Amino acid sequence: MIDPLTRRRLSHRALFAAIGIVLIFIRLMPVNHTPGGLPGPDLTLALTLAWLLRRPEYVPAALVVLVFLLEDVMFWRPIGLWTLIVLGATEFLRTREQSLRDLPFALEWALVTGLLIAMVTLKRMILLMTMVEQPALGLELFQMLMTLVAYPIVVVVSRVAFGLRRAAPGEVDAFGHRM
User: So what's the pLDDT on residue 86?
Assistant: First the structure.
């Protein structure tokens, strides 16, 4: 029999993967047939950052790579570039999870804003250096803004629907290690 903490961890990992696949499927659906529409938020990225800041053990690096690599392939982006940038950002947050645990939401949102700006800037610089055609800067900035607007909604939905909360200061895992 599997212990409840391991079961919860594995079920949240499976849930994260399933939500990522559903979000990719929804973005692939031909809903709007008029060309030149405005981009929506990157909900997969918002979900990844929100879950990582609350429970990093639910979003391992390998799962992040699989979900975003699948996105790169499905949306015809330069394969591995956005995945590598997202992996770097998530590992940056993962190493600072202990110090970010008691951060108020407004500062967390500001941290995510700065991280998104850095990620988009790095992506654009790499694409510029390799002379790859880039999407319009206005569209990317609008998508980043929409992702930032959607971030609090993703946090609330994750808390209400999936019970995702930050680890309490004295909470321990299945092995008795402090979280």
Answer: 96
In degrees rounded to 5, what are phi and psi of residue 172?
Answer: -120, 155
What number is the average pLDDT over the span 143-172? Answer: 86
Phi–psi pair at 178, nearest 5 degrees? -65, 140
Evaluate the CA torsion angle 9, 14, 17, 22 in order and state its sign: negative
The answer to whether the beta carbons of residues 115 and 49 sit under 8 Å apart is yes
Is the CB of residue 72 less than 8 Å from the CB of residue 78? yes
Predicted structure pTM score = 0.88
pLDDT single digits (tens) 122-137: 999 999 999 988 888 8
Identify which of 4, 9, 11, 88 has the alpha carbon closest to the alpha carbon of residue 45. 88
pLDDT (0 to 100) of residue 127: 92
Cα(158)–Cα(78) distance, integer angstroms: 30
Q: Which two tokens stand for residue 74?
A: 């499905």
Burial of 151 (C-beta count, 10 Å sphere; 0-12/13-18/19+): buried
- Give me 80's structure tokens: 């591995």
Look up residue 155 and give its two tokens. 């946090």
